[in-house]
Amino acid sequence: MEPVAGSDNPGRAPVRYPVVERDDVVDTLHGVQVIDPYRYLEDPDADRTRAFVDAQNAVTTPYLDGLPARETLLAMTTSLLTAPRRGVPWERGGRYFVIANPGEKDQDQLFVADTLDDLLAGGRLLLDPNDWSADGTAALTGLSISKASGLLAWARADAGSDWRTIGVLDTATGEVLDEHLIWTKWVDPTWLPDGRSFLYWRYPAPVSAEDTAAMGAGELVLHRLGTPQDQDELVWSRPEDKEWMADPWVSDDGRWLVLTAEPGTDSRSTVEARRLSTDADGRSVVGSEVITVVGELADAQSVVGSDGDLLFLRTERDAPTGRLVTVDLADPAADWVTLLAGDDERVLAGVRMAADSLLVLWSVDAAHRVVITDRSGGAARAPELPGPASVTAWQSRPTSDEIFVGLTSFAFRHRVFRLTTSGAVDELPAPDGQSDQAAVTALRLRATSADGTQVPMSVVHRADLGPGPHPTLLYGYGGFDVPVLPSFSAMFASWVAAGGVLAVANLRGGGEFGQAWHEAGMLEHKQRVFDDLYGCAEHLVAQGWTTTGQLAVHGRSNGGLLVGAAMTQRPELWAAALPTVGVLDMLRFHLFTIGWAWTTEYGSPDDEAMFRVLLDYSPLHRLMPGTSYPPTLICTGDHDDRVVPAHSLKFGAQLQFCQASEAPVLLRVDTRAGHGMGKPARALALEYADQLAFAAHHTGLVVS
Question: What is the CA radius of gyration of the chain?
Fold first, then answer.
């Protein structure tokens, strides 16, 4: 391939793309010939892949460095991401804990104190991931504290990987125990009642941490402190069905272990229970008898809590917007008793237990509302909290009247409240120096999709912004039953503060409006998600908020797929496209790491009917030579072992090959970075600034 010149405007030197080799690779899939000239980029350690990444970054870095708004936006994102911040406290074993950052630290830290007041005054530093690596890329990604022993089991991830290492320390003394468990993922350590053993999820060791091959079956195992990892006891596995995973829950009274299990990312699950007991040596033992609570894979289920043998379960059985039921574990075949149920106006998003009470989370028009009821679901009372907002975290104990709730919204960064079951509401002080955003206005709009469905979205802008049209950033996700709710983002807050309009779409496939909304945008219905996005874009233009020459589209992961589909199906709609760590090769996604787990959402390319659905919208395979695509900045991480970088690398190479216009196509590959979790604050600030500067340049946003 000859070098290709692309220029975003006449006043700027053309972009000279690197020479990229194309191999003669052709697959025949279900009778269809599929070319794959950049197959070699699937090996992240191959010399050609490394040379490709270096060459692309050598083009992209000076381009982004030279954008006029880049330094101003970098100062804004850095200020927001390095400001002091504090999460939601919780109590465990008589001590209070919180994740916080005094500011300027790459990674958040864990603090502990004997009282809440002492914790808010600073507390004692218990765990500092900033000491784990010189470059700040080692992160704390999970933790669990035993009520019985006060021991803390924590999970560490390096360079953005999903692989985790588990360690243990004593919260009273800070002593680190000689425990080092490897090749773990997904499930946080779950302590058993003896305080000397816990459950975790592990996989067979791969060839290396960078291995992108599809993973084998995992297993839930029991680890006893002081024993080698290879002696851990198997609790649950389905080796013949590698896509299945189990999530453990242990009752507060130590009587029950309940496992919810599902294939891959399927929101439906089965439920089984096992009795816990103590042997002659005082060790917790998991009973061998399996009590089946839900045996069929038909609906979503999640454990709320228990009261003796009575299990509280949030279910979507006969309730597409959720209901709370009780199940008698002594007689699981008996009829369930419904305590609460969602309806057309509200989704039962979650429930927690507090002393003689239930803490209920409703989702109403894609925003959270907190209600406290008695244990029967009656005597409801709503604490006075700001809104519309979403809950970042909530903490309660079945035997305590103390509740902590964290809230975020488009209008504020983070506010934390201490509630009591008797009705008290107190806002905890924010850490000194916590940054917030300028006054904004957030509106709810409704767009119309291709099939007539009304699609909600939030439009956010600076309160003093005049009439449009304005440069606008449209964000969406639309998948995996994940709700997109009002929340603070340093990237979005910087865009709005700079004078841009932000539009956040609630697309089908998400979890904002219950089971039916999710199912309407998955499998063979995935095109509806893209159509919903186009409806939102066209509504913004028709209502005068923006123009197609001022509209940028952005999404991450499954949202990166959304952007890839949008720019290949409707390239004329966008002034700029920002696909980030996207799933872009829909014919081979299931062959890498955990990709097979997504077949419950996307369907499998191995199935002929779904292959044809996937081929029809797969962004990589929709790229056509001689087509004019919008200015595009593709972002990925070279250590992403969830959505492997091959998706972005192959898509970027093919897009540069096909691009007919002078609009630039750039690949930004972050080294020592993964899917996004645990990225150092300054590295994340730089990524956001690069994306915003690119969007600002191509939508005409002038940042002063």
Answer: 25
